[in-house]
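General statements about sequence and structure are easier to judge against a single worked case. No coordinates are needed to read the tokens, only the vocabulary itself. The sequence in question and its structure tokens are set out directly beneath this paragraph.
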Amino acid sequence: MVKFMALAAHTLLSSTAATSTTPTLQLGTKVGRTNPNYASFNVDSSYNRGFFHMNFTNPNLLAATASLAPATIRFGGTGNDYLFYDCQTVPGRDNDFYGCLNDTHRSNLLALATDTGNDFLFGISFDMEAACATNDSSYVWSSNPTRVLLSKLSEAKQTVWGFELGNEVNNRAGSDSHGACNLIPKQQSDAMLLLSGVLKEYYPNIKERPKFVGPDTGYKDAPNWLNATLSSAGSRLYAVTHHVYPGIHRDNFNSPDALDRVLNGDLKWYPPILREHAPNAQMWAGEDGPTSGGESGTCSGTEGDPHNVSACGFYATVLWYADDLALRASHGFKQYQRQDLVGGRYSLLGTQHDNEYEPYSAAITIHPDFWITLMWKRAVGLNVLSVLLSESTPKTIRAYAHCGAPPSKHPVPDYLNKSAVSSSVTLILINIDNVTTTTMEVDGVTSSSSWTLTPGAGGPFNAGALLNGQTLPTEIADGRPIESVPVVGVMRKDGKLTLPPLSVSFVVVQGVEAC
């Protein structure tokens, strides 16, 4: 029997179709539900991502961000733990270990969310400079800078959706690795409890109080850190967040084993910890990108280096991104924060110089992964379904299903009913084979409308992408959000679907009742 690892928790193999040579798909039952903001993204204040050079009032950036609503903009990353709020910008002073979020930059950043129909999650500094200067378990986080920030927000009548505290604090545990500062879990959990109390003080009305999420752990001994912090502070959290970078590059971008690696990684230990210590909190991917780290977002590679295997900014990461979004939704994730929206080469959007916006209305580059987020908003409902695949299904086919109304104000059209999709079933079908086209049949389907992403000219290691064979835009330069999907769907009046090599298909089907 073929084992379809990508959906091991929720996918069964259909014995009734075992003798068929054509792969078939049957819809199963509802297994979960995501947030409307599920496919979200981050803005990292790290100096090496160009944060302090960015013009967040750029109309093209605003248009691109509005195109991906509704989402949560998580303002977080390494730089947030070196950020100061009561300061004046001094040219040349900002660096990797110091950042000044002045009032103007903060207002513009918040407007990037509020003016585009998105929520804003503010990552509060753990003051890593002071923590590492202390370099032992005696460091105590001070709430005074946060109180300054909250007062500034109140005076400016600015609101945020939520707060978190610290970015990958667990990676600073011990003293045997780069950047380690001998921190222990209790220091972060005590700080979380203190911040929770401060939020109650500043927002006494629970209905108006911002949400509190965390602890945003990184790679280093994350299970033990989460167990320790959540056993103390888990009851205070709206959502638990953990970073889930997979390490996708040119050598493994279409490998089933690479895509399935998370099944024996965080998907094995992360959900049980939440069930034990934070059963009322949502499970989030706090950060996810094709690969972690890298100065200026280069994904740990240097352009022109023959040993550079980075796939960042290329079509190749589209396959992983679509699969990871769908896979994690099928395993109970409520929200997914992509690193990053802009600022670094594994971002959804790019700038003229990768680190600044000049002039004010400079065009914004669209990286191929942007289209996965846009299509998810336009075509994918919140209810997660299981799927049943026949034994003849190649292991290079990844299949997922959702139903219900997509969260965007501009859903893809239901061509047959002449209306916007309201409660249809959407399949997310991914063919990671780089040569073979697969034809599938979907049981019970009478008709379908599909949108299929494939590589543009030059193949997967280029920045171009096609949708139903038509070249997609590579920039936004007119200040106008993308509302309607720029390519019409391919309609069929049967249950057959064609999946080209290295493709991601969003298929809205009729004839089945699943929600």
